[in-house]
Predict the structure of TetR family transcriptional regulator.
Amino acid sequence: MSEPVDTAQRILDVAQALVQLRGFNAVSYTDISGPLGIRNASVHYHFPLKTDLGISLVRRYRRHTEEQLETILNATPSARQRLNRYLEAYRTVIHPDGRICLCTVLAGDAPTLPESMRREVEEFFKLNQTWLTQVLEHGNASGELQLRDTPELLAELLLAALEGAMLLARTSHAPGRFEAIGQRAIKAMLTF
Amino acid sequence: MSEPVDTAQRILDVAQALVQLRGFNAVSYTDISGPLGIRNASVHYHFPLKTDLGISLVRRYRRHTEEQLETILNATPSARQRLNRYLEAYRTVIHPDGRICLCTVLAGDAPTLPESMRREVEEFFKLNQTWLTQVLEHGNASGELQLRDTPELLAELLLAALEGAMLLARTSHAPGRFEAIGQRAIKAMLTF
DNA sequence: GTCTATACACAGATAGAC
DNA sequence: GTCTATCTGTGTATAGAC
């Protein structure tokens, strides 16, 4: 009864996993078509230019993230719990095989990406930073947190720490490192 | 009277600048030979395989960093000043054109790098982390700092924050962002 | 040590049959 | 929508002249 998932979505699924691991430039149309049992020309039918594919990839990822963040806000009014849930969300994108956040990888590729794609990545980070800022602000206003700096700057610091933690953990083949740093970074937000 | 700088070193100079910007895989032998006024075959004479070039690149970068860190230790006994100098060192590798720390870029490329090269990158981060740990430990022992967590974990957090800050700042074409986050991260070490 | 020339693989992309 | 076939560019790397 269920419709077969359309090819464009499955292309994006495979492409995303590959890009999360190797980066945008190190993934080819053939890399993507192979696991799907189709030919690279078929991928071009759905995404004529690689830039098209890249933009669709980031947009879909950002939409998905937006939904997750919205869900967290609805699930709890506590800043502590919101931040913990935010950290949990990272666990869903990090894999032992080396996959990390799509946009963290693309940030590394940024200077080689088409400008239109780089802007999409930038928007992803803005989304995260704005959300974190609001969570910290709200926690401060309600008295749950006692921030020692502006919510904007602390949000930026937390985001940066998580980005860097993913890179460091992956480079040293030590996924546990992300957890340790992530937990500590959040604790810092609560303690500041 | 001064000897002409040997070609191998100049190759590494050009290669490093290019890799700091685009990453390892997005830099070709022709990209490197062009600015030097030679042909790509000449680069192969000095570094037969690209992996050879990559390893030399990271080793030289790490040696240079080791010297800088040693210099900082000799220049001041204060943890505060040492951390500030450490941040200053980042300023020498970050450029408005998009160049950031060589090993931060290579961390993004890690899964596509030859294993021997990845290990060299890992060593670079270990070097930084060990140094930072010692600085924090020393500052704590002397009473200058009051750490609220282990020096190891705080060093990891600081390193991760700086890594991430470089990526975020570059992605949004806002070099000033690195400064702000970096300063705040160091302040966190002093305040913990 | 640097050159020209070239081998070989693979990339993104397109044309046209089915 | 997917295929085969192909174009064109570029990458790493090597052979051999100078």
